[in-house]
Amino acid sequence: MDTDKEAAAASRRGAGPGLEPAGYCCTACDGGEQPGRGNPIRGRPKSRSLSASPALGSSSDFRRTRSLHGPSPVTKFGPKACMLQNPKTVMHIQDPASQRLTWNKPPKSVLVIKKIRDASLLQPFKELCIFLTEVKGMIVYVERKVLEDPAIAGDDSFVAVKKKFCTFREDYDDISDRVDFIICLGGDGTLLYASSLFQESVPPVMAFHLGSLGFLTPFNFDSYQSQVTQIIEGNAAIVLRSRLKVWVVKEHGEKRTSVQAGVDTKGLILTNGDVEATRRAVQYQVLNEVVVDRGPSSYLSNVDLFLDGHLITTVQGDGVIVSTPTGSTAYAVAAGASMIHPNVPAIMITPICPHSLSFRPIVVPAGVELKIMLSPEARNTAWVSFDGRKRQEICHGDSITITTSCFPVPSICFRDPVNDWFESLAQCLHWNVRKKQNHLISEEEEF
User: Fold this and answer.
1) What pTM, to 2 d.p., does this model score?
2) Catalytic residue among 30, 149, 180, 188
3) Does residue 177 carry a catalytic annotation?
4) DSSP structural state of residue 338
5) Which tens digits make up the pLDDT trace of 74-117?
6) Cα–Cα distance list, 416 to 203, 237, 239 (Å)
7) How many angstroms separate the CA atoms of 224 and 230, rounded?
């Protein structure tokens, strides 16, 4: 009898007899699985949304597991860094000024990212690498194509330092668990590139302003030695820049013709005129925005926008931008959107030149799941890009699923998240910068 009761209780908890209840994984992460996998969340099996339309796919393809408050971000950054816990937090929402970085162990390795094809960065890059290797005794990781620059390769005085570097190649070498923190030399693009190198936990990023805009790069290189030393010693202010987890699922239908029924090279049994349908899914982590546009076509783009299974609207225009709060001050603000502080858990949806006067940008909770597909009546395909990279065509049947990632980018602040952000607005975007009015002269002052 007792065994039957235990089995029934385990079944209600979502676990089999003799098994522990399934551990909780944050709702946006789901352990990094592809959409449609049936791992239990919070001890319950995933269920299909009651509002999902059958046209959106089978029950194994769609699920509603998103919290309206967004996912809890992973606060472990790389192998050694984490966010200093604040016991006074309420509802797990920290005051931005209380977000502090600390080290479990002293950092020993650093990734230096330098803007490519910029001669003005050669001297700062050399000075920083010499300081890190010879003064701080750190292991320095550098991308191989950076060292292939003729100005660096032909510098005889830099040969001894280059021999100490650990090199890697993008899309070939995995450095996820090898780097303790990152230093970026360049503009905002270097921080975006650093984010793209890490598809899960991202080490803390220290960005020096050596580019054109510098909205995301708060540090000046003039006093780099003291600033880097302070970061290595720990307890610095950070801002957690949320990213978007994006799934691109492409439906391919290839017409196979053969003289007679047979087996092709992949071992698939085919007959005359059969259509082999294959699905290919790719995941991206995006720091700024996902942009869906009409590409080279002269027709308006025509895409359907779903939110948690509901058809919200059809976007007719040049396209649509789905951005993080960090990306709200990039392409989105140029398209007429508002600016959102990086600590706000939200996703912004901004139309690009919509063919409707009433279509305005909207902000939705970070925990929702967005899905973008070509409308059935669309005259042309669409194109999508992720932080300006990996541009690809979207055809009928393809889908783009977007939600907030639980792997943010911990960006080290110069002062604190609030002051740094408003200072960037004033200096880089000249937000509300104007000549002040003169005060009125009273009658007493005239005499």
Assistant:
1) 0.75
2) 188
3) no
4) P
5) 888 889 888 787 665 544 556 777 788 999 999 999 999 998 88
6) 18, 6, 8
7) 10
